[in-house]
User: What shape does this take?
Amino acid sequence: MRKGKRFKKKIEDFVCENCGSDVKGNGFTDHCLKCLWSKHVDVNPGDRSANCGGLMEPVGVKKEGEKYIIYYNCLACGHKHRVKKAKEDSVEEVIKLSTGKL
Assistant: This one.
């Protein structure tokens, strides 16, 4: 059996704990599309097995090929995480993040 990250698609709607926006999940949604903040709920993507529950602050963005990657730090435990920018993400927030104005 192969070890490593295993993605579990989980369709969930949620209210962003940072800005209060209602977020409609599509099975791949793991952060607020408006403010880009997330919550530390997964050990592996979609498994909801992390015990932390802290807010994940978006701290940077980097272009890799044609994709943009958003970098996160958990405010509660310091866990670091990165995700691909979703096409529905706020372009304004991604620009702010890339220029250090977040």
Q: What stands out?
A: Helices lie at 91-98. The chain has one helix and six strands. Residues 91-98 form the longest helix (8 residues).
